[in-house]
């Protein structure tokens, strides 16, 4: 189903919990306000089944930290019963080593693992925790469980990790992973001012362009650019500077307490779906999807063309 901007809906991003075992100072927490009412694995399976009726084919599990859910394997199994083509997860990887194989067996296809640095002190400065070795173990386990392509999400932070990009490209490519460089969005969950950490990725993008042997534009992934280098692959995520980013958004979100969320950046247009799907009120649950899709709109829009006053 298309929204009023002609954008189709193909992806659902589910926050399975708001809890996290790290405390990254810049984290936007998927734009979710903390809640008490977590969905069960069955709730998620039912909602994804409905989402598939509206065109959703890909589901990404996020949070909080999805692996904080003790029933994460059941969640994946429940969602895998819906007629969709891919389940993926974004995780900090620190709890992944023990569960990667089980997740793959349950139907998880691939993972994005958040890793901003290879340096233990910098890791602790960013996350507040001394768990870098666990994150490394999680990445290795993901590769050996075949959760491919493994993508490594690196948020580039001015004055903190911006000098590590070369090493991160090498680290990712040694493991057959793709490095995803993310420009910081200045919306931390705790309202902190992040402007001093913002690093414009414009010059990095130009450098990648020079070095790349090929560049791909991923139309259904917010028109993201993927740079194929001799020594690895790098994707860039720059929502604010790429006016096409939102125009190619194909995603709806589901909060951990069961609200459809049309946009990461907004909390004023959520639509409750959980109570209807739980009660078996499928007509109302479908209407909730229709309402949420109608509320989808690009957040970062192309700059309006300037008017030129012509004098005769
Ligand atoms: N705990 C999981 C993880 O670490 O991947 C899932 C949740 S986390 C919010 C999902 C992704 O959002 C991570 O890759 C993280 O780096 C990214 N992220 C968080 N806050 C951000 C911000 N302010 N700007 C850009 N990306 C951000």
Short description:
By secondary structure, the protein is α/β, with parallel strands linked by helices. The protein has helices at residues 41-53, 72-80, 100-106, 120-127, 132-144, 165-174, 202-211, 243-247, 274-278, 282-294; strands at residues 11-15, 58-62, 86-91, 110-114, 151-156, 178-183, 214-218, 224-229, 232-237, 251-254, 259-261, 271-272.
List keywords for this structure.
single chain, 312 residues, alpha/beta, TIM Barrel, 12-stranded mixed β-sheet, binds S-adenosylmethionine
Description:
This protein has 312 residues and is an alpha/beta fold. The chain has a single domain (11-294), classed as TIM Barrel (Alpha-Beta Barrel), CATH 3.20.20. It has ten helices and twelve strands. The chain has helices at 41-53, 72-80, 100-106, 120-127, 132-144, 165-174, 202-211, 243-247, 274-278, 282-294; strands spanning 11-15, 58-62, 86-91, 110-114, 151-156, 178-183, 214-218, 224-229, 232-237, 251-254, 259-261, 271-272. It has a twelve-stranded mixed beta sheet. The protein binds S-adenosylmethionine (SAM).
The number of distinct structural domains comes to 1
> How much β-strand is present in the residues?
15-25%
Q: What does the average pLDDT come to?
A: 92
Strand order of the largest sheet: 7-8-9-6-5-4-3-2-1-10-11-12
Instruction: Give every kind of bound small molecule, once each.
Output: S-adenosylmethionine
Query: What integer value in Å does the Rg equal?
Result: 20 Å
CATH class equals Alpha Beta
CATH architectural arrangement: Alpha-Beta Barrel
